[in-house]
Write a structure and sequence with these properties.
single chain, 424 residues, alpha/beta, 8-stranded mixed sheet, 18 strands, binds (2R)-2,3-dihydroxypropyl phosphate, binds manganese (II) ion, cell membrane, transferase
């Protein structure tokens, strides 16, 4: 009800993080390209398997002068997996404590990235080599205001060697996407969702370029082959974007959507990581890589703690679009006022100093139980995290954005979108 909305707006106004003048508008007017790294955990970055880099291209990107690489960025997904990641990236709202908001809340009013950017002349599109109905995307994308959704119906999926369990493998997917991407007017906001690196990570051995690991746990051992494939596909994308003349006027964002190896593989992961996978280690394995490449922007490894709800305000500020009046629960990662406490969907959280995992507090730096003197501070952070999650659930469960239109924002009419191929 409206008092809930008042609480929400009071929170977002008070939690608003001012743009950093050094980054605000650094990408003004540029195209935006999101490259979704399926099931990709950050431990893969700079990891060597039998002395060999698993992801050499992404490793090189951590050193690129115009790329910010965030090595303390965490997924915040729940049961909605990829759809939760998308929900957070597009709205800066958390997914739900159970189930997938994509499926149960597709009829809500949203003020998602595509609709905000439409007011600035952007055309938006999602590319995904799976059926458009998976995760109910072809319904909720209309509420987000995506102009186009190029699903499997737009691709040639006839050759079995090109296919993974959930759709077209990354290399043929990106290759076939080129003509569709070229058809978009600029500036565009384009998201490419891949499926090559997806559980259980089995791959046609004719396509692999790195050996499996040898823990004896099949999905852990295979994970490195599909991760390497993902890396090779991304390298090809960067090469093609340069050849297409898009590299110098586009922001390229790469993000991991959620973990790849679940908590059921502790023995094998202890061998891979060279340490026991305690609850603290497991929480710290929830890092996913975030790369933000902006032509002309000062890059470097950025240790700021953040999560997927922080990406939208960060992107909008890079594009020179202020977020103060939007209901967004994350904050700009480049802002000096960014809140580095990262809530997980289950109420746990990590931060540069204190972690809360399974109702226990830890010193983030040492992994040891928190000393008594910091308990008051820890409890304060826990209350803030619980409150942030509670507000997000109020917005999504109460569909509160129906009652709140930021000035200058044009609401979405989902009925005006049609994603079927012949409609294009
Ligand atoms: C399905 C693909 C994988 O289209 O995005 O979804 P996930 O299983 O990772 O949620
Ligand atoms: Mn996924």
């Amino acid at each position: 009800d409206s008092s809930d909305l008042t609480d929400v707006v009071n929170y977002t106004q008070s939690a608003y993080a001012e743009p950093n003048p050094a980054y605000f508008g650094a990408a003004k007017g540029m195209n935006v390209i999101y490259l979704h790294l399926e099931s990709f955990q950050n431990f893969l970055i700079n990891y060597k398997l039998n002395g060999e880099e698993v992801t050499p291209f992404l490793n090189s990107l951590t050193k690129d002068k115009n790329t910010a690489y965030f090595d303390n960025f965490f997924h915040q997904t729940g049961q909605g997996k990829t759809s939760d990641a998308e929900f957070m990236l597009e709205n800066s709202l958390f997914g739900l404590p159970q189930g997938s908001a994509f499926i149960t809340k597709a009829q809500n009013t949203y003020q998602a990235a595509p609709s905000i950017l439409k007011d600035y002349g952007y055309t938006s599109a999602v590319f995904h080599g799976n059926n458009g109905s998976f995760w109910n995307r072809n319904t909720i994308y209309k509420a987000f205001g995506f102009d186009h959704f190029f699903d499997a119906g737009y691709y040639d999926t006839s050759d079995p060697i090109d296919m993974a369990e959930y759709g077209l493998l990354d290399k043929p997917f990106y290759e076939q996407s080129e003509s569709l991407l070229s058809s978009l007017p600029q500036p565009f906001y384009a998201k490419f969702i891949t499926v090559g690196n997806h559980y259980p990570y089995a791959m046609n051995q004719d396509l692999v370029t790195i050996d499996k690991a040898n823990t004896g746990d099949v999905s852990v051992d295979d994970y490195f082959q599909t991760a390497r494939y993902t890396d090779e596909a991304i390298e090809k994308v960067f090469t093609r974007l340069k050849e297409m003349g898009l590299y110098d006027n586009s922001v390229i964002v790469l993000y991991g959507d959620h973990y790849g190896i679940s908590e059921n593989h502790k023995r094998a992961m202890a061998q891979i990581m060279g340490k026991e996978i305690t609850p603290y280690e497991s929480a710290n394995l929830q890092r996913v890589p975030l790369f933000i490449h902006v032509p002309g922007m000062k890059g470097g490894v950025n240790h700021t703690y953040g999560g997927q709800t922080d990406l939208l305000p960060t992107l909008l500020h890079l594009l020179g679009i202020d977020t103060k009046n939007f209901v967004q629960l994350g904050s700009d990662l480049f802002s000096k006022e960014h809140n580095e406490v990262v809530p997980f969907r289950n109420g746990d959280f990590v931060s540069p100093t204190i972690d809360s995992i399974n109702e226990k507090f830890y010193d983030n730096q040492t992994g040891l139980p928190l000393d008594e003197r910091q308990m008051e501070r820890a409890n304060t952070l826990k209350k803030e995290v619980d409150y942030r999650l509670e507000l997000s659930d109020k917005v999504v469960n109460g569909d509160l954005l129906r009652f709140y239109t930021p000035n200058g924002y044009t609401p979405v009419d989902p009925s005006q979108y049609n994603y079927t191929k012949d409609a294009d």
